[in-house]
Every structure is written in C-alpha cells, then in structure tokens.
Known about the structure:
The complex is a heterodimer. Chain A is an alpha+beta fold. Chain A contains 10 helices and 18 strands. In chain A, the strands form 4 sheets. In chain A, strands 6-7-8-3-9-10 form a 6-stranded mixed sheet, with helices on both faces. Chain A has a 5-stranded antiparallel sheet with strand order 13-17-14-15-16, with helices on one face. The longest helix of chain A has 18 residues, at 166-183. The two termini of chain A are 24 Å apart. Chain B is an all-alpha fold. A two-stranded antiparallel sheet of chain B has the order 1-2. In chain B, helix 4 crosses helix 6. Chains A and B meet through helix 2, strand 6, helix 3 and helix 5 of A and helix 7 and helix 8 of B.
Amino acid sequence: MLRTRDLTVRFDGAAAPAVDGVDLDLPTGQVLAVLGPSGSGKSTLLRAVAGLETLARGTVSWDDADVTDVPTHRRGFALMFQDGQLFAHQSVAGNVGYPLRLRRTPRPVVARRVEELLELVGLPGFGARSTSGLSGGERQRVALARSLAVEPRLLLLDEPLSALDRGLRERLARDLRDILVAAGTTALLVTHDQEEAFAVADRMALVRAGRVVQSGTVDAVWHHPVDADAARFLGYATVLDGEAAHRVLAAGGAADATGQVALRRSALALGFDGPLRGRVLSARATPDAVRLTVDVEGVGEVHAVADEDRPGAAAPGVGHDVRLVVDLTRTARLGGF
Amino acid sequence: MSPHTSTRTRTGLGVAALAVLPLAVLAVFFVLPVAGMVARGFFSDGSFDPGAVLEVLGRPRTQRVLWFTVWSAAAATVVTVLIGLPLAFVLHRLRFPGRRVLRAFVLMPFVMPTVVVGVAFRTLLVPSGPLGGLHLDGTPAAIVAAMVFFNLAVVARTVGVLWEGLDRRREEAAAALGASPWQVFRTVTLPALTPAVVSAASVVFLFCATSFGVVLTLGGLRYATVETEIYLLTTQLLDLRAASALSVLQLVAVCALLYLAQRTRSAREQTLDRAGVRETARRPRRRDAPVLVVAGLGLLLLVGPLATLVVGSLRDSDGWTLDHYRALATTGEGGALLVPASQALANSWRVAVDATLLAMLLGVLVSLTVSRQVPGRAGRHGLAAIDAVFMLPLGVSAVTLGFGFLITLDRPPLDLRGSALLVPVAQALVALPLVVRTLAPVLRSVDPRQRQAAASLGASPARVLLSVDLPALWRPLLAATGFAFAVSLGEFGATSFLTRPERPTLPVVIYQLISRPGEQNLGMALAASVVLGLLIVAVMTLVERLRLGAVGSF
C-alpha cells in the first residue's frame, strides 16, 4: 500500500507550502481520489508522490519500503497527465509499447501486449494510427493504455478526464473505473470534479490550501462533509446553521435538530402540506425538474424543486406563496463522523 | 466576379503591393549582382562556355580549398552542436542567478565582427600568448575553434528557445513509465529537439562554410575556404572568372542547404507543442554536473579570447597602458592607415545608421507581407517563395555579394562605384534576413481573428495595423533595429570589397592594422576591437533587455 507521512512541498518564494504535512493511506487495489479546487496543491501532491518534486519534509513509502529518495523512473508509479502527453513522434502502438521497449521486452511480446491493452481501453486496431488524428477521449485512452502497459504498482492520474466534454467525461469515467478494477490497479486520482471522483474512486481525500481536510470512503465523505466549504465543494447547494438549520431539520423530522446542515438542491420540494412556508423568488425549468429559489420564513433564501410527481407540486410562478417538505436523505450533517 | 473572388483578389493585390519595394531592392541589389556573377562565370566573349567553370573546379588548389571548406565547417558544426546542446540546456532549462546576463553574453559573439574574433584568437594562440604552449597558431584547429566561438549562440539560442517551450510533463510521463534520465533524453527530448538541432546545425554549417573574416585572419595563406579564395582571386590575382566559378558553386550549395533547413523548419512548426506560460526551468541538481562542466567549457571558449583581447589592448612591452586607445586618434605606426581609427569609427556609425534604416524599412515590409494570410494555395506558395527569397542573403556569402556589386553596378544606368550608398545597401541586405526572422514570427503569432474583430468593429486596414499589429510589434521592432545595427557595425565581408579607401569602417581598419607589422599597430587593432566589441555589447544588452527570447534563433 501507498503511505505518505507529513508530505510537504515548498516552492521558492511562496509564503505557504504548496503541500503541507499530508498523510495519505491507500490500500493496494483501491482507487483514492484527491479532490480539491484549482490551486489547492493537489497536483503538486501527486507529483510529489511520483518523485517529481523535491520534498521539504516527509516520506513516501510503498509496502513499508521508504521510496522518498528513489528517483521517479525506479518507483514503478506510472503517471498519466490531464492531456495525455502522448509522444507525437510515435504512433499509437509506439506510445503504448514505449515502457515495454524501455525494459527491452522482445518485440513480439510488445506487439501482443499492445494489442491487449488497446483492447482493454476500447481502441482495438488503433495501433498503426498517428497520435495527431485522435480525439480527446481517444488520446486519454491511449495514455491510459501506455500507463498500464507495465502493470505499475501505483497509477497516478492527474485530472485524467477534465479536458473532455461532459458526455464523454461521464462515459469515460465509468470505463476508467471498470478498467482499473479489471486490471486490479491501485490508483491515486487527482481532480477538481466531484462527479469524476464519485464515479471512479473508492476513497476520497479533500484538499484545501495544501492540507487534507477530510478523508475516508467516498460514501462517508459524501454523507458527512467536515465543514461548510467541504460540503459546497462536494456539490451541496446550500449550507445552513443555527436557527435556520434547526427549522429545516425539525421540519424533516430529525431526532437531533442541532448543528449545521448541508442541503442538495432537491432537499426541499414543493408539497401543499409541507411544514415550511415561503415565497418563490425565481423558477426555471430543467429537464429533470423545475428549479426554484424560495425565501423561506425563518430560514432565508434556499433552493428547492417542484417535482412533477408530487401532488400539488405544479410549478408556481414568481411571487407565489408555497409550502415545502424536507427530504432528510438529501441533506448531510456537517462535522465529519 | 463574385464578391468573394473580388475580396480575394484585393487581398492578393494588397499583399503584392507591400512586397513591391523590397522585391525591387532585392532585384537590383541582390539578383542583379548575383546574376552578373553567374554570367561572368559561364559566358566568355558573349558565348556560353561552361568549360571555364569546370576548368577552375578541376584545379588542384580549388579542390584543396573545397575540401578544407567542407571538413572545417563540418568539424566546427559537430563541435558547436556538442557544446551548444548542454549550453542550451543550462541557459534555458536551469534556473540560477545571472542566467539572463549569461544568455545575453552568449549571444554577443554572433554579432561580433569576424575580424575582431580572428584577432582575439590570434592573441590567445600566438607563441607569446596565454595558450601559446598549445602551438595552435595558424592551424586548422584554431580556425575551427573560432568558428565554434561564433556559432555557439546559434545552437544555444535556437535549440534553447524550443527546449524552454517544451512541456516538461512529457518527460515526466516518460520518467514515470520507467525511463532513466538518459532514456528520457534519448527517446523523448531529443526527438522533439531534432528539427531545431538540424535547423541550427545547417545554419551553423552555412555560416562556417562561408566564414570569411576568421579564416582570413587565422588561416593566412595556407588555409583558405571558398570564401577567402574568392576574395584572393578577385583582389590579388584578378582572376574574375575563377572567382565567379567558385561563387556559383557556393550559391548552388547554399541554396540547397537553405532549402533543407527551410523544410525541417516548417516540419517543426507543424508539430510544436508549447508549454505556454508554464515555467519549465528548474534549479540545478547534483546529477547535472557533467552537463554543467561541458557548458562551462563552452563559456570558457567564449570568455578566453575576449579576455585576452581586452588584456592585450591594455598592455604593451612596459606593462599596463592606455596608449593603444590614445593611438586610435592617429593613423597608426608608419602611417598604416589613410584616416585615423576614430574617423573610421564615425564612418562605421554613419553607415550602420543608414544600413539599419534601410534594413528595417525593407524588413518590416517583407515581414508584413509574409505574415499575411492569403486565401488559396497559389497565394500561400507565393508567400512561402517570398519568404525563402529574402532568406537568401543569409546564406549567400557577403564576399559573393560584394563581388557581385563590383562587377554589375559599375556601368550606367547603375554606376554606383563611387556612391556612398553601396556599403549601407550591402550591409542592409546582410541584416535583412535577421530582421525578418525576428519580426515575421511575432506577426504570425497575432491571431488573425483579432484583426477580423477590429475590422468588424469598423477599423480601416491602416487602423487595424495600428491597433492590432503595432502593439505586438514595437518591442520586436526595437530588438530587430538593435540587431541590424550590431550586424551592420561588425560587417566585414561585403564591406571590405565595397568600401572606399578614404572612408573605411572600423572592421576594415582593424584588418588593415593587423596586416601591417608593428607592435603598436597590433595594440591599436586590439584597442579598436575592444571599442567595437563594447559598442556591440551595449547594443545587444539593450536588445536583451527587451526580453525577446527568440532573437537570434533560426
């Protein structure tokens, strides 16, 4: 397993460390997503694990062997970049077979393995093509095949899907998960996109200003964000505290109605018998539901949906008085677990 | 005619109009002299007679000269690349204090007057000099070393600028896949650099094979290249037929080489994958030591001759003195010169101003022309041809150009023998390719949609030029001006042919001084070299302050 202790990277002239005392544990065979906004130091963290940054402090170890001073090319950690970084002077097969040729693998073996890998990433028969003619998604698949070619102990993925458009990203995220599981690969994924993290990872670490603020299984982190910023970053629409939080929690029938609460957009829905009252500030139809902002008495401005299936939920106009129900399964209590 | 076609035709005509003046100048002052020279070689008494050319090429001395030209240039090119690559790495991929100053320093030799460099190496290598014990004075090794000295900047710059822009992550990806640093260099970095290395190497070979001043000062009569041989045949032996035969041969070889260089360059422009604003340099590490040592040796090669030059200019047999500098106001020991060296400096300055103005005027017009986007295949090919034609003076030797001037512009309607214009025109043509190389890439990098946006907002073509092109261009313009000025100040090949005895430039005076006996004359030559060098260093420092990384890259 991968273990980092007190991992710290400092850049020349920067006041604060880019990565600050990070401890990570990644069991073999699992996928860990490091999730953080841009500039949070998550890519630097990944590069430090790969051995591409000089550490100010701390250690990186694999299966209890300290690899902190082992140069990148001897770590056995493959790194895949956001834009693939394919070698333009080589064909698709040339790229995928590159790490095998470095290890002086016999040519027929390389050819067979390349074919297998291209099959695995869904690009059978692409070997002879030039890399310049590939689409963004194809490039990333080739880069993934190249990274997997020598069965790395650890696969490091730097925003592997961020450069792709939305539909492709979702499909490729699923494929990526399947490929990693099929190959039994241990992977560390860095991303700013929580959807990507949820789709691919088993475990998750939230990073802010170079520090890990929360880590755990994807499920645990999702259901118990450590604080308001974490909740917003994970995709919760609103975070309430004090009296407002109490009212919403009580309206949802929570046993303990104290503390902060994060709400997804769909946590509040129109319902003619709902316990909360408010006035519609805006309404906008989306393919799934009508999205509202409502000024709720004693709570303030919150998001809500008008679910077509719920009785009495026909989309109201702006300025209408409405009543809302609370779905506690679409909320999260803050403070971790 | 459809509206579309009429726009296209108009664009084409507009571009053609821009190019008229430069093309006319090129026709009169380049094509005409060169054609005249070709004709002189192939025609005798009005009839076509290529036998004479073959006869010249068959002479044993010619073959010796050809062989020496090729092998010395090849050797110098190999050494330049071997030292230049580590130097490019150190200057462009490592971060350390004083990096910028070093980069400017490495660029200096390239614009140093060839004669000055020759003198500097002589002082270093003569038996009484600091490296006299090596017995290199008057050997081919000295000539090759001087060629390397000159051209290190070309490799370090051309390769360095590309190297700096290469995305480091590609190398990191390879390292993470298990490639050792050497494997990374061999399988990822080198293939990416190859076009720049080939391009730089071909230009270096070109410069070495056509180098004139250093061979003339270091080779004496024993070692001659095609270039010095042309000079010798013309001025000493008065065998114009043989001279033009050699010029033709050189022209053909140069054109072939330029064509190859152009092809690798366009291949490189297609595949370039820049890192953008990302800083790719890092701090030196312990394992960079071998590279740092080679780069250090390269820098020593640059510093050594220049230091000797400066020290030599400040010493005579009695110790430290400023006498050599005082002597610059005189005509030298035993009246070696027709005018005082200070007067020659003033001449150089005036000529350089004229040449720079002319080079800039032509250079801007050419750059605007070749950077336009013209619809249609024919248009694009036309522009590519114009681009190539204006690169020709880069490779056609200055001596050939000067010689061509002499034999074609000497009779009506263009009798310019006595004209003060001849030297500036020749120098402007020598500087022109460098100006275009500086300006055109910047103009090409302006997104055409910016011009379209300005036009769609109601800007006239002139206004578009003013508000879109000029802001991007003013720094390169200043840089190119400085570059042209420096080149013109140091130009020796063409000038030595064309200058009138009573109005010599400083490089010509330096050559006259070292050709004469007398310790005082040598000291004076050193002092004059230092003055000229300092002037050029000052100009180039200004250029470097404009922080245009690409100046001087091919």
